[in-house]
Amino acid sequence: MDKKNLSILSLNMAFGGAQRVISIFLPHLVKDYNVSLVLFKELIDFEIPDGVHVEILFPENNLKNTFFTKIKETLQASKKYNMFVRENNIDISMAFLALPNIVNGIVGKKNKELRTVISERCFPSLMYKANKSSQFIANFVIPKYYNQNDALFSNSININEDLKQNFKVEIPMSVIYNPIGIDENKRILPESIEEKPILNFISVGSIYQAKNQKMIVSAMSHLKKVNYHYTQAGAGVLENDLKSYTNNLGLNEQTTFLGNVTNVKDYLLKNDCFVLSSNTEGFPNVVLEALASGLPVISTNCKTGPLELLNGNEPVEIKDGDFVKCKYGLMVNVDDDIGLAKALEYFKDNTEARQHYSEVGFERAKQNDIPNIYVQVKHLLNG
Fold first, then answer.
1. CA 274 to chain centre
2. Residue of 61, 71, 231, 332 with fewest CB within 10 Å of its CB?
3. pLDDT (tens digit, 9 = 90+) per residue, 24-71?
4. Which CATH class is domain 4-179+369-382?
5. Which CATH number is associated with domain 190-366?
6. Domain-by-domain residue ranges, the chain?
7. How many helices (H) and strands (E) does the chain have?
């Protein structure tokens, strides 16, 4: 039986959540489809498997990131991608993130035999809330062009509800959680967790406002600092501000800034728990990676993802300045440094709790093992 021709449309393959998901799927997709990876720009940080054809729409595109250039780029991309789809007899086109999703809808309308599948990776109402012009454009563009596709999948129930209720997306929508590779031999075993004088904890992510690492440093200031050490993996626009804040609170010796690292799991395995301090998420891959490493997790109850990962999406009520014990980890309110301090203190003083969450968290991560998730993606692509 001949393989179908599949095209995957993305802005780039630079380090990022959506790009990472694509990179995980590619080795599996190439076995079942003739795969083309079509990128707006040639930024590639992930390994591309043999057998995947890479096409760059704008090899020398130096357009500035403005409203009008985005419109121009969208129109140009739609024209170029439409030509690519026709010349290469593409059967299925899958897109990730807003701009590729829009282009996919435009091209899908022009090619009735083409099956178009899009993936939303953020919570749109929060993503476009800060900027009124962006919010106005999103309210017009998302309903018009997303609905020209055949199907949509996101990585959160809440994202789909937001698209349906606030952006009038009416095409079939499903939830397919992000995949992860499970390695039984590369994890923290619950029986290896012991009582320690210092709780070493880590956070992973770019340092900018939405990730709110300042909350972690503030939490440290409420604790006996000699008993805790915070490692930050990732850099970003607010890195210097965070370092200054850490210095002002006298926490330099208790904090390590790693910058960007590629071997994240190696650092996860060296710590006693993981902290996610985000104000908002699409789907926090780092939480899933921590669970898959057997690392106990503390997370803010932000939209979207943590509640689904740590409590099966069952709502929780968290008092200000406190935390709750969920099925697979601890949760605190967004921007509640006192609650986070109490959660860190709880893990330091309760070895059995860390052992418990190491065990159940790993079992939760296994639900997202690549084979389980890939079956769902393949089923959706084939319609």
1. 16
2. 71
3. 999 999 999 999 999 999 999 999 999 999 999 998 766 556 666 777
4. alpha beta
5. 3.40.50.2000
6. 4-179+369-382, 190-366
7. 14, 14
